[in-house]
Amino acid sequence: MARPHRTLHNGLRDGWAAARLVSIDLARGLAVFGMFAVHVGPDSGEGLVGRVMEFAYGRSSVLFAVLTGFSLILITGRNAPKSGVASRQAIAKVAVRALILLALGSILKYLDVAYEPILAYYGVCFLLVLPLYRLSAQQLGLLAAATALVLPQVRFLLLPMFGSESSAPEVFKLLVSGDYPALTWVPFLIAGMAIARFDLRTRAMHWCLGLAGVALAVLGFGGSSLALHLLPGVSAELADLQELGLAPDFWWMYPDAYTASWLWVALPHSETTFWILGSTGCAMIVLAACSLAMEALPLLRKLVSPIIAVGSMPLTAYLLHFQGIYLLGEPCSLSALLGFIVVVSAFAVLWLRFFQRGPMEALVGRIANLARHIP
User: Fold this and answer.
1) pTM for the full model?
2) What is each CA distance from 223 to 24, 99, 108, 155, 234, in whole angstroms?
C-alpha cells in the first residue's frame, strides 16, 4: 500500500493528510463516480458510452463494500487488533457508525429517494462482521471465500419464506430479500478486512493483489459463462423468465422470479456466488491499480487530487448526489454525469481547503468519538 501522503493540494493540513492512505481514497473516489454513472449517467448498453457505463453497474457498490471492510480494520487495528480499553473503544466506534448508517438509511427510505439507499444495509453488515476483527488475514480470506460459496445458496432457500417483498418484515429485507442483502454482502466486507490485514507496503504485494483479483474475476464471470453454456436447460430456463418479464433487461432479478438456474449467473446484483467472486476480483484489481499508480507515478497524485478529495468524504458525496437527483430529477445523460462529477469534486476540494474532513464525516466522527469515554 502506498505510504500515507502529506499533501494533496494547497490548503490540506499535514496532520489530516498523513493519516490517510491515498490509494484507498482514490479507489473510493472512483467508486463514488461509478455510483454517479449508475444513477445519473446514460443508460447502459446504448452506444459506446452506454457500454462503458455497464462497467459501473454492480461494481461501484461492491468496491465501496470492500473498502468499508478495509476501513473497519483501520479502526480496530491494522497491524494487530487493538486490545484492552482501546479495543472496547474501537468496537464502540464501529457500532456507533453502524447505527448512524442504519438511521440515515431509514430516513432516506422514508423520504422515498429515487434509488434504494444502501446505508442501512451497510450498517447491518458492519454489525455482522465486527466480531471478526481479531482474525488474521488468512482466516479472513478463508471466511470470505466460505461465505461467498455458502450464503447465496442459503439466501436462495430463505427467499420463499414470505410471499412477496411487501409482506416481509424490515429485518428480513435487510438480511435476505432487499436490494443489497447483508447475507450476500458480508463476503465483500470480510474480503476487505482480509486485504487490510496483509502487508501491502511493497510493489510486489500490490501486484499479487491485482493478479489475485484477475483470478477471482475470471473464476466468477468466466465460471458463470461456462456454466450457462455447458449445463443443459439452464440458459433456456433463464430465457423463459426473461420472455415472461420476470427478469427485466436480464439485469436485476426480483425474488419471486428466482429459480435454481439463476444461481449460475454473474449479472450485477444477482447475489450469486459467481457474481460475488467476480465482483470482489474487480474491486481488488481497482485497489491494486490505484496503489501501483500512486507509488509509481507521484505526479499523478496532483492530477487526481479532486478524486482523492471526493474519496475522503464518501458519505457527504453520497448524500449530495441524492440532493442533486431530488433537484434535477433523474436526467440519465452524459452531461448530467459530468455535471455531478464536477460539482461534487469542486465542493470536496474547496471544503478541504478549510476543514480537515467532510461535513458528514466530521459529524459521524464526533459522535463515534464519544466512545473514548468508555473505560
Assistant:
1) 0.87
2) 29, 37, 37, 20, 14
